[in-house]
Write a structure and sequence with these properties.
The chain has 15 helices and no strands. The chain has a domain of 203 residues: MetI-like fold, CATH 1.10.3720.10. The protein is mainly α. Helices cover 70% and strands 0% of the residues.
Amino acid sequence: MTTEPLETVQTVQTVKRGRPRNATPPIRAKARRASQRPRKSVTLTVLCAVMAVYTLLPLAWLAINATKTQQNLFNSFGLWFKGFGFFSNVGSTFSYQHDIFGRWLLNTLLYVVVGAGGATILATLAGYGLAKFDFAGKKAVFAIVIGAVAVPATALAVPTFLMFSKMGLTDTPWAIIVPSLISPFGLYLMWTFSADAVPAEIMESARMDGAGEFRTFFSVSLPLLGPGIVTVLLFNVVTTWNNYFLPLIMLKNQDWYPLTLGLSTWNDQAHTAGGDVVFNLVITGSVITIIPLIAAFLLLQRYWQSGLSAGSVKG
């Protein structure tokens, strides 16, 4: 039987007394922290990289080729620069065909401000009313809204054209603005968002303080609906800005064309006898067209928040 030195036994006892009973050994603590870290997935990383390339590659091609002249477009690699004629292309784009590109830009802004803005206002009011008030036929309205969301816009283009033709509104801005005011998806989105974003307790509290329905909406509910309104607005802006098929069948006068239809006519000139080949202006115009959309997303992305009132009335 071996006897350990007294100093060694005292040291071991001191270490044991100094460590708390619930203390976790360093090795176990490191293993626990490692298990709590999110695991890296190589497959997911590769898929995200592929999607990023798939999304950004066309934009890169567009931005690079907007700096080239008409001649350099066909004498150089598409994903690399050759010369720098971006500013001259911009000037030529706005001056070509008696400055009609600027007119198309103003037309598009008109359709977006009146059409998309009006659609957002109507969707907000209707969605809030359907979410917070009960009335006869509410289920029927819900079924109609869901059905309208399922119907593609192209299926309604020809009936809309025939109706507007009877009313004498074709080849006018109203032929684009009036259909843009109806947004079934925006209405449904605001309906579902209003149901959760504005608690009934807050509305009841405002009513008990003597506020009417209009004051309750504008003072209490509207600030809480901000994220949903911005989301619907962006959807409507993108839809109206990129609208092509409806102006194609509604408009004949080029002075009322939006950017999408106008650039398409410039692109089609290359396939007509004696038409000007202005692919450099089409590409530059396309770059100018997407800049406002990118700016809108960057400026409004901070408003993309949800659940501003979540838990505000819960104790």
